[in-house]
Amino acid sequence: MHTTAQAHDVDLLRFTTAGSVDDGKSTLIGRLMYDTKTIFEDQLEAVEASSRKRGDENVNLALLTDGLKAEREQGITIDVAYRYFATPKRKFVIADTPGHIQYTRNMVTGASTANLAIILVDARKGVIEQTRRHTFLATLLRIQNVVVCVNKMDLVDYAEAAFDKVVQDFHDFASKLDIPSTTFIPISALRGDNVVERSASMGWYQGPSLLYHLETVQVGSEANHVDARFPVQHVIRPHSDQWHDFRGYAGQVMGGVFKPGDDVVVLPSGFQSKIKAIHTADGELEEAFWPQSVAITLENEIDISRGDMLVKPQNQPRVGQDLELMVCWFSDTAKLQPRGRYVLRHTTREVKAVVTDVRYKVDIQTLHRVEDDREIGLNDIGRIAVRTAAPLFHDEYRKNRMTGSVILVDEFTNETVAAGMIR
Q1: Chain region(s) in the chain for CATH 3.40.50.300
Q2: H/E segment holding residue 50
Q3: Which of 90, 167, 309, 369 is the most buried (most CB within 10 A)?
Q4: How many Å apart are CA 341 and CA 108, to the nearest integer?
Q5: How far does CA 422 lie from the centroid of its chain?
Q6: Cα distance between residue 198 and residue 206, in whole Å
Q7: What's this model's pTM, rounded to 2 decimal places?
Q8: What CATH code would you report for 229-311?
Q9: Which CATH number does 318-422 carry?
Q10: CA 164, 170, 173: angle at the middle one, nearest 5?
Q11: What SS3 class is residue 171?
């Protein structure tokens, strides 16, 4: 059994990387993987051979992450790619999202589970529209930690003034946004300055290297350990072959802490009971919290089915059919239809929903509300109102990213057309 202290020794950081097309994201991720010895020798040899073939002066670390051959040949990165690496202090999952403006939806997908966002800025170009777009999305998705990596410092002679200008311009823009923590690091992904090791070329910078910051930054504060939420995913019936005389409710804890003996209320019925035990494949637990997947048994036999939710009597979510959502539109074939009908998926529930109003669209460059153009299409972000066919048990997204998020699905094509955050 791990102690809590041991469990935190090697914990997990999920982070997303964002920047415009040539800001060096792939090179940065390649550098992190290369310098932490995450890649295999044959991978490195293949990349070195590829670099020589292309006539690159240095080993082109970007080729480590641009996995598809066609992608490598065209020199572009598409879709969200998840990369994994580890150091003795922490494990990392990187959501590598494209920089192109038309891939906002990919960044929303990649960043939705992230604890931290790395936003790359080219030291020569400074803060551009894509920087503002990605920063806005990071705050919309309630990412607690933003790291602004000012890349290509080698191309501006490692000048402190170039770095300071980016910091000032970013602060001027981000002052309108709610970012709990912002860190600025001057780097050269190509040469490795301040990525894994501190740079000898920038004596004026006294802060940590990027990897040191990633290893030591506090994470987990965005998990809601106060509001207990357990949506039931599956009912484990009695008299099955595996469990004799057992009736458990399986699912993932999406907030708070559950312990045997706790009083719980079942939504929507309102029936009350006590937790008898919390089961996992490895045995019973003394407590369960996000993101654990468990099976809970209760003292009383209550009629519970998939989509119901176990909560604490004194701490219940909102229950209602009218929701205000910030949505990012995913579909490239259909636009959001006012009065449109969709299937709405929320935790383990699926209900029909109708759009009752399009409030406004967001101009991501200025962050202003656009109220005279409410047509929402691919990659647009806007605020809408929907009414669901049955009540949902929900929280605001800023309180709980799990119970505060929904997806909208086209009921005819089954295409996921939007991700939404409950306001």
Answers
A1: 4-216
A2: helix 41-54
A3: 309
A4: 23
A5: 16
A6: 9
A7: 0.78
A8: 2.40.30.10
A9: 2.40.30.10
A10: 145
A11: helix
What is the C-alpha radius of gyration for the chain, rounded to an integer number of angstroms? 24
Nearest to 182 by CA among 162, 202, 193, 168: 168
d(CA 386, CA 20): 33
pLDDT tens, position by position, for the chain (423 residues)? 333 333 433 488 989 888 776 767 778 887 887 777 766 555 666 666 666 677 666 656 665 555 434 443 444 444 567 788 888 899 998 887 665 555 667 777 777 778 899 999 999 999 988 888 888 888 888 888 999 999 999 999 999 999 999 999 999 988 888 888 899 999 998 888 999 999 999 999 999 999 999 999 987 656 778 899 999 999 987 665 555 667 899 999 999 999 999 999 999 999 999 999 999 989 999 999 988 999 999 999 899 999 999 999 999 999 999 999 999 898 888 899 889 999 999 999 999 999 999 999 988 777 789 988 888 998 889 999 999 999 999 999 989 989 999 999 999 999 999 999 999
How far is C-alpha 420 from the chain's CA centre? 13
Pinpoint the residues of the chain covered by CATH 2.40.30.10: 229-311, 318-422
CATH number corresponding to 4-216: 3.40.50.300
| Tokens 């040469």 belong to residue | 191
Whether the CA torsion 311, 223, 360, 97 is positive or negative: it is negative
